[in-house]
Specification:
Chain B: This is ABC transporter permease. The complex is a heterodimer of chains A (about 525) and B (about 325). Chain A is α+β, with helices and mostly antiparallel strands and about 525 residues long. Chain A folds into 2 domains: about 270 residues, Periplasmic binding protein-like II (D-Maltodextrin-Binding Protein, domain 2, 3-Layer(aba) Sandwich), CATH 3.40.190; about 210 residues, Dipeptide-binding Protein, Domain 3 (Dipeptide-binding Protein, domain 3), CATH 3.10.105. Helix content of chain A is about 30%, strand content about 20%. In chain A, helix 5 runs parallel beside helix 6, helix 7 runs antiparallel to helix 9 and helix 12 packs antiparallel against helix 13. Chain B folds into 2 domains: about 45 residues, no CATH class; about 180 residues, MetI-like (MetI-like fold, Orthogonal Bundle), CATH 1.10.3720.10. Helix content of chain B is about 80%, strand content about 0%. Classes of the chains: A alpha+beta (about 525), B mainly alpha (about 325). At the A-B interface, helix 1, helix 5 and helix 11 of A face helix 2, helix 3, helix 5, helix 7 and helix 8 of B.
Chain lengths: ~525, ~325
Amino acid sequence: MSARHSPSRKLLATAIAAIAVLGGVSACSSAPSSGGGSTSGATTTGGTLTTQFAGVPISLNPALGGSGGSAIFTSLPYDSLIWQTGDGTLIPDLATDWKLSDDNKKLTLTLRKGVTFTDGATMDAAAVKASLEYFLKAGGGGTRYAGPVDTIEAPSDDTVVINYKSAYPDGPAYLTQYWSVGQIIGPEGIADPESLLTESDGTGQYAYSASDSVTGSSYTYVKNKDYFNPDAQQFDKVVVKVIGDPSAVSSAITTGQVDFAGVNPTTAATVEASGLKLVKAPFFTWGLTVADTQGTLNPALKSAEVRQAMALAIDREALASAIGADFTHANGQMGAEGTDGYVDGFGFEYDVKKAKSLLAEGGYPDGFSLDVLTENILDGQTTISQAIAGDLGKIGIKVNLVVKNSVPDFIQASLSKQYPAVIWPVVGANSAQVVSNFIQPGVTNPFGNTNEKLSALYEKAQSETSASARTSAYEDITKAANEEAWFAPVLSTDNVYAVGKNITGVTASALNPNPLPQAPDAKYAWKRTK
Amino acid sequence: MVRLIVNRLLLSVVLVVISSLAIFFLMSLVPGDPARTILGANATPDSIERLRQQLGLNEPLLSQYGTWFAGVLRGDFGQSVFTGDPVVALILSRLQVTLSLILLSTLVIAVLGATLGLLSAVRGGVLGKLLDAVSLVGLALPSYWVAIVLVALFAVTIRIFPATGYTVLTDDPGRWLLSLILPVAALSLGGVTIVAKQMRDSALDVLARDYIRVLRATGVRESSIVFKHVLRNAALPSLTVVGLTVVGALTGAVFVENVFVLPGLGTLVTQATTSHDLPVVLGVGVFFTLFVIIVNLAIDLLYGALNPKVRVR
């Protein structure tokens, strides 16, 4: 008996030993990712910060790279002219001072002295001018954010002047770290843009290390020893891991494999329950955009009454509650709460009776059929799209949803001018930025619609010189947009981030919904607690 | 054997042409434009057109394919339209991960599957019935789902293994093994049950043969009968199944790599497909085709080594 059982005992012993060995290795592997460095007060510097981003960089060349959250790939090695803090305040970065002319057509920037690029060149007005001009020529997706640039001048070594063809009060905001136009590239990088894909050439806190990175998987940035403000550098290394799958993101942040991650609202509760901090900020406003406002494909859409009826038929509160009230908010106006131009208490209500009446006034008492283009990447499982379609059905509008499985496919389909309406989120720090989605050609305005009233209000807002006057003009845009009802707003959704237990300083707001770890001033940078 | 290898190599050229043509034309049918993907929603038509021209996307399809294939004949698989990295360099940088995953899974499938199947056939009883039941479950559970459950259990709840990521073998062999245990388990489960079932059925068939009875009657030791005669004869059909599961594991790796965020060929081809990065998709497609050919050749050679009756001259 005992002889017969001995193999089992051996197996058991082997298994226990194996588990012990693995446990030991596991214990080694679960050591914090940071190491070394120095401590000061309650925080410590040095070590590695590991963050997550859902997609691969569009390009490591800032002129061709992405904006918003994906700017992390280029903003680490490339300083911007101006820095935007978590609450949206603009503070000096490469430019120590800036001033818009009274007519908002001329932006004068004073540059920081004693800053060098990683290629060894001095950062001066000539280099900044060359970088801005290269950006305008490179043809990247962010070109439009540069604004109506007429000329760029470098009157002295530390002064750059940007002349706009028309008023552009958002100019300074678009020179911040989130918009690649403001990220300044060194002379060698401009001379050989291909080199920027493997070697960064900026003045930033970190330099891209191709040898430590795996393209499409993880991107490593090492401390730039020549950075102009070493006190602001909190980490020796920053690693950006590309993790798209929401459950993998949740696992990675929960187990401490990453220090910061953008989490899906559906997994946010689980992440929070594990003791991690959540940071959130309003970002997208979702809604139905009427692209065919002239009624070329669908004559019913030419009527403002019909468009307003559609906006009134949507039960925003019910949808927000169904999706998850913690991170989704019913919104009857195009801007998210907290953005400039958001009007408290204003917006489309849910009123089916009035909607039916307006539909009849517009000449369609029995409704009509409507093709609506949408996608299932941002609108996962087309939850929002289906809810909108269902609500429009209540007033007799039979929606045929055409779903694209990728964002590029959606964009291409929208620009094909074959769809009279699209479901796509809009975003902007103020209502002029948001409304530009509908009055300038693009994915939400494939037909190139123009609207005298909205354009006039847009121009007025751009030319206002005081912040309060601009806010008032932005509010006028918000109200006028609902009258025209080119966009039926439905929901605002938050960007939600999970932050590791020992990371502090992560802030986000409606004006800056994409936190980044570095800042030119240590006060605003993320830190690791001891 | 040399003839077999030469024939297979010639066949591989034909298969690479057919598979790359299929990938090329299927990708061309998929809506989407790499230039649009690269430049984003706000790009101007002019800049998109310029980039299309630069990437050669305005050329006729056959001409594009011809250019690519001519490059392949010179050993140039092109560059990623997104990163500008040479495709071969991209594949090589990801190869270790996928090969580690596939080879370890194959080992687990073959050894564990064969052991369980043989044990079940020899011992029979409850183990046999259990194996039948587990085989059905193993077949029914997709590796993607198994991967998520394993992460939830062994990485998030009981923190024994890392939830995501990969450690390079030469950096730290211990962590390398640790980073692969859950992915290999997820990838192997289905294969183990299939091979075990196959091995059990084959072994039972062999055990019922007359010559086994004769061997027992002549006093040959049971362990010798099992390992020298039963295993060798029953292994042949199981070998075919192992070959098929290895090829299947290649598909499974695409999903498993995504769940465990492993920087392998699976995640590379997923990213390349969604972003219409045709040179990368074609390069990985050619690699997968060659991999399947090599696996089949290896199985044929092993077949011959195990069974002289089918040995190729």
